[in-house]
């Protein structure tokens, strides 16, 4: 093959021209590359490998490199690159781990030149040296990078990143011996091709995999990286430590990044999922794209500028099986549609508002605020720059302060810290949270918690701790335990009394006296009668209640008893009320005969009503003791929506967690997720990290529970052999040495481990702190000067 001369710094006499155009491909594209004179583009994918000519009006297919009746996996390409010095030389990265070079100058139909099969897994990237014709670099899923000399049959160097798979490799445009490699663990390594044993520099660039990197064509030390964390970062590599100088936040994972020719601060990006658009960013204004190309209908897989000195043409391939040439003048400018107004609340209620200066100045009728005008105008002007094409907008910023005394958020912090959301029975959670709200002088919230306890607690098990609140099997009147009968009984009827007698040897009375709503029961040792499987139903009136309404007692000698039915008339003639009436004789006989209730355990219950409170005989109970939880769900749902709309999302989320399945199905998932995200955001603003994490763990929304599961993997390498450790213990599988041994006490560290990033030695935190107080040298004896910060 002939060696070609380098492209000059200026465009040739044949000026590049064209328009926005596209062509349909036979299959989705994985990567594209353009030849050095910008007249042809190669498209590669799993089922396509073709060269298209770039004419002024259209794409023209020039050559199909997939030849043969049964194409091998060598034609299934994950990446492709056209040499920028040799116009007939291409290289592809195959999905079967092969690195293949292609010579377009061959007279035969099959243009395959050399085949390297040294990688064990898929090759993700291939890259030619910008000035050396025969030097080719590859990065594979197996974690290795290999440098090939095309004049030899095998690789000349192998670089091990001692990490997970290599996603991208790029030779430096200005430094002959340097190349950069990005990895799936978030690291970026810089290597010298003359030293394959160890990298020159390594730093963590992203949280998650780094999918791409690109050296700046003009500035020697700038390296752009893109990752799954949806960020594009620009690093200055000229300093001793890699310094992040710019950061662009995108809306999806960044799959490709390419610097724009002749524009120092512009770069293009595309995503590997969700977002199909191509964005050109001005890294100095990272909050809105400088230009957008929206033609593709599926994920964009490859982008390349048509000529390394022409910033006006961009080529792209996509999974929608199209190949596009974009004219920069046809791009959408998001800044033209941007709203120059902004509104933001501060943590303590301060309000900042930015708007066009013309809108603020024209508001002449605005009344002054009490205590003086609190507006602080800040004008955003930039000096005219011929290369700056953003629309110039001057805005005024107004800040409205709040009265700290009237808008303090102490209650929010204390409530978040004191609320109990799990770990105790439902009734205790409600009582505790009601008490917290009462102490913080929030009576409405406190009452809400109390009502929730009443609505959703089992009446038979509803108890309130206190000196006179001991309820046994007669304590099935929850409303009496929470509300004062005195308030209910004012101005009603005449006094009446209902008494039940169960024996003569001992009496336990339940009294309801004026001003006292407590229910007292002196029989504290009373146990559940054997065979009781239901709740007692209480009816107020003169009709006698069947004894089995209070107790379900199994009788040894069950005889047919007279059935006492409630009269149908609401008001009937009353019998003479005696002071201590006894139960019917046959009931007393049954009690005496029952093997479960002895004479000494017989009880007499006396309900003494409040003055002026009439107990009226009715044919139906005043309330149903068997109301299902679903009966209260609609009103609870409205209550939660009310609190959320009022801004108290803390109450909405807390009730949602405490009630759990009782109410969760009544509220749609999107609303729940919105409430959770709002509350978690507030907690994190107040730095309540533990409470925030507890809320995330207790949530049942899949979008919420995953918030504390991202970026939690810790990859550990053995300090002896430098190989990755398994998760089975502290012994390395390869060298069989204890990896985390304290350099001071020489015991295995099973807890908090601190190590020096310079020499990799470390140990127990307390031991290392004490050692470094008196000595600067590493306790392992390696001679390294360790520093604890």
TrEMBL record:
Its EC number is 2.3.2.27. Transmembrane segments: none annotated. The keyword Coiled coil does not apply. Keywords: Autophagy, Lysosome, Membrane, Metal-binding, Repeat, Transferase, Ubl conjugation pathway, WD repeat, Zinc, Zinc-finger. It holds the Pfam family WD40. Pathway: Protein modification; protein ubiquitination. InterPro entries: WD40/YVTN_repeat-like_dom_sf (IPR015943), WD40_repeat_CS (IPR019775), WD40_repeat_dom_sf (IPR036322), WD40_rpt (IPR001680), WDR24 (IPR037590). GO terms for biological process: autophagy; cellular response to amino acid starvation; positive regulation of macroautophagy; positive regulation of TORC1 signaling. Residues 484-533 are annotated as: Disordered. Residues 496-511 have a biased composition (Basic and acidic residues). GO terms for molecular function: ubiquitin protein ligase activity; zinc ion binding. WD repeats lie at residues 116-158, 203-245. Belongs to the WD repeat WDR24 family. Catalytic component of the GATOR2 complex, a multiprotein complex that acts as an activator of the amino acid-sensing branch of the mTORC1 signaling pathway. The GATOR2 complex indirectly activates mTORC1 through the inhibition of the GATOR1 subcomplex. GATOR2 probably acts as an E3 ubiquitin-protein ligase toward GATOR1. In the presence of abundant amino acids, the GATOR2 complex mediates ubiquitination of the NPRL2 core component of the GATOR1 complex, leading to GATOR1 inactivation. In the absence of amino acids, GATOR2 is inhibited, activating the GATOR1 complex. This is GATOR2 complex protein WDR24. It comes from Amphiprion percula (Orange clownfish).
